[in-house]
C-alpha cells in the first residue's frame, strides 16, 4: 500500500504526537518546559494576606523526625506540597534545594507529599536532595487551600501567607532570597 505525501506527513505527525503524549518522554518534556518557564513568585499585598490561625497540624517525618506545625509559629516558614510523579514539582526541586541549602538554619522548610516513604526516599536519594519531607497525620490548616501541585506558601513571623504559588517557580532567585532576608529581619 502506497501512502501519499500528505498521508505520510500525517502519520509522522501523529506518531510524534503519540510518542510525546503517551510515553515517559512526556514527563521529561513537561519538566524541561516547567524549568524554562519558571519565574520568581509574586508576593501578596499586605492588605490581601491571610493569616494561618490553626497550627495544630501533625506531620509524619519521611526522611526526618515527625514535626508539629506549632513549632513553626513565630518563624518564617516555607511550605511546599509536591509529589515525585509530578513533572513541575521535579522541575522546581533543584532551585528549592539551593534555597534550602542557603536558609535551612533560618527558615522552617516543610515539604508535604502523600506518597509512601520508600518512593520518596528513593527519589530524594537518586536526586541527592535532603529536603525534610513529611506525610500528614491530620488535616492541614484551612488557609492552605491546595487543589493542585506544586503549591508553595511562604509565611512571615505573624503567620501571614506572604507568597502562595501554584506551579513551578525559580525559588533560588535573588527576588526570593531578598524576600526571605526581609522577612527574617521583621
What does this structure look like?
The protein is α/β, with parallel strands linked by helices and 186 residues long. It has 2 domains: 5-34, no CATH class; 39-185, Glutaredoxin. The chain has 5 helices and 7 strands. It has helices at residues 5-22, 25-37, 87-103, 117-127, 174-185; strands spanning 58-61, 67-68, 77-81, 108-112, 133-136, 151-155, 161-166. It has a 7-stranded mixed beta sheet, with no helix packed on it. Helix 2 (25-37) packs across helix 3 (87-103). The longest helix is centred in the N-terminal third of the chain and has 18 residues, at 5-22. 29% of the residues are buried.
Write down the CATH topology of the largest domain.
Glutaredoxin
Reported for the largest beta sheet, the result is:
7 strands, mixed
- The CATH architecture assignment of the largest domain turns out to be 3-Layer(aba) Sandwich
Structural category is alpha/beta
Strand order of the largest sheet: 2-1-5-4-3-6-7
Please report the number of helical segments: 5
Q: Give a count of the beta strands, DSSP E runs of length 2 or more.
A: 7
Tell me the helix content. Answer: 25-40%
Amino acid at each position: 500500500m502506497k501512502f501519499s505525501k500528505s498521508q505520510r506527513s500525517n502519520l509522522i505527525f501523529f506518531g510524534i504526537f503519540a510518542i510525546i503524549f503517551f510515553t515517559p518522554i512526556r514527563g521529561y518534556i513537561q519538566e524541561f518546559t516547567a524549568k524554562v518557564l519558571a519565574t520568581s513568585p509574586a508576593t501578596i499585598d499586605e492588605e490581601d494576606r491571610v493569616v494561618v490561625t490553626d497550627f495544630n497540624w501533625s506531620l509524619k517525618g519521611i526522611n526526618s523526625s515527625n514535626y508539629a506545625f506549632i513549632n513553626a509559629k513565630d518563624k518564617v516558614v516555607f511550605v511546599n506540597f509536591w509529589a515525585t510523579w509530578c513533572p513541575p514539582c521535579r522541575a522546581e526541586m533543584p532551585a528549592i534545594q539551593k534555597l534550602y541549602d542557603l536558609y535551612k538554619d533560618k527558615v522552617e522548610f516543610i515539604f508535604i507529599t502523600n506518597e509512601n516513604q520508600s518512593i520518596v526516599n528513593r527519589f530524594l536519594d537518586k536526586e541527592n536532595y535532603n529536603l525534610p519531607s513529611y506525610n500528614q497525620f491530620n488535616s492541614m490548616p484551612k488557609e492552605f487551600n491546595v487543589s493542585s501541585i506544586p503549591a508553595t506558601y511562604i509565611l512571615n513571623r505573624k503567620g501571614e501567607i506572604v507568597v502562595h504559588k501554584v506551579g513551578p517557580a525559580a525559588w533560588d532567585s535573588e527576588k526570593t532570597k531578598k524576600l526571605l532576608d526581609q522577612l527574617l529581619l521583621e
